[in-house]
Amino acid sequence: MEWTGARYADKPTVEVRIWVDAPPERVWEFVSDVELMPEMSDELQTVEWLDGATRPALGARFIGRSRHAALGEWATTSHIVECEPGRVLAWAVQDPAQPSAIWRFRLEPRDGGTELSQWMQMGPGRSGLCSAIDRMPDKEQKIVFVRMREFERSMTVTLAHIKTLAEA
Q1: H/E stretch holding 110
Q2: Domain harbouring 46, CATH code
Q3: InterPro entries per the record (predicted)?
């Protein structure tokens, strides 16, 4: 687990990894089922494919509805920007050219199983966090740090959940 960057404009990132005792094809079943993600998250409440999509493919879109005690409730549209079955799935939140975040799963065959990583980048496009930073610019680094730690904890739970499902 590591994260980099201190200010929003730095596009800070965080990545979490776990080894799964299952082949990448099996792990992919759960990674690629974005409608399953709310079961693994305190924040993400629902996910719904848009435009008739039913699974990840380049350019496919889905809407995610989230809730956070300090940030309220919101919905975002995500765009699949990388999709290689059994290897990588990534989506850009809101505007793919200026996303408020990018999320990525990577699957690598390792030691008879799969090394699964989840990575995210905050920014460069504006997100709900920017309102808090606008109100308290002197606390930007702390706001970003706290949010990145929340993401790290959530990602750790998500990967552990995927591991449990894939190994069952």
Answers
A1: strand 101-110
A2: 3.30.530.20
A3: Polyketide_cyclase/dehydratase (IPR019587), START-like_dom_sf (IPR023393)
